[in-house]
Amino acid sequence: MDLASLWSLQGQLFALLAVGALLRKVGLFQESTKGFLTDLVLYVTLPCSIILSFRMEISRELLLSFSIIFFVSMGIQLFCFLLSRITYRKQDEGKKSVLRYGLLVSNAGFLGLPIAGELFGAAGYMYASIYLIPQRVVMWTAGLSIFSPAAVNKKQAALKVILHPCMVAVYIGLLWMLFPVKIPSFMEMTLSSLAGCTTALSMMLIGSLFAEMKREHLRLDGNLIVFSLLRLGFIPLVSYLVTRFMGLDPLIIGVSVILAAMPGGSSTVILAFKYGRDTIYASKLVIVSTFLSLISIPVWGMVL
Q: What is the CATH number of domain 3-303?
């Protein structure tokens, strides 16, 4: 993207965040509303975006690109796993679990997909969908074990990954690519209309999160600053240098780096609450890293 387009996109994202924050402040976004809209994005609009992104002719080069970005993602996840194992050794268990999980599992599935789509078009959605497969596996295995090793059930973890709505959308998209079928124009327009809601809904939901910031969320510590530097700077930097050294396609590099540069995942708060860890600290981690990502993502966009 050229610089003007990148800053226009960033202005759009900030405006949508402001709308979400305003809706939360005036009471139109309740907790139940947020839960409903989150499900709407994950179960309807994001899958529609993914399905439409696979609408292109299949080729050997495209399948090769799929396999490359899949293995790149595996390498990034392995790097994040090793990084999470060697950091924050001296923290109390409540904060250590939150910080390590945040390094391992980013918000790429919720925030990264629409941003990749806005930056790189339909191909961005498609490549990002493949990239996210290893992260979804890690999220329900190594990620969950950070909070509770006993909670990891291989069969349940496999089912959660296989039956995830975005994964189902990948299956449908791949089948549509391999066996192209002409669908009625009204169905295609419906898919396109629903997919077009993804960015707006996801950004407004994140904006509502900012509106909930309390005084304790404003008190930062060194660990959160280091976490943000690692999550938003170091991990994507290593990803960028390695993929550039390998001489990969610029689109693969761009999608991989942008998704590697996503903030801590919102599931951090959910799991911290479920397993009795520091929920306030988890909320602070997600809010702070998400806020800082609004600065770091455009920087990475300019680098790419």
A: 1.20.1530.20
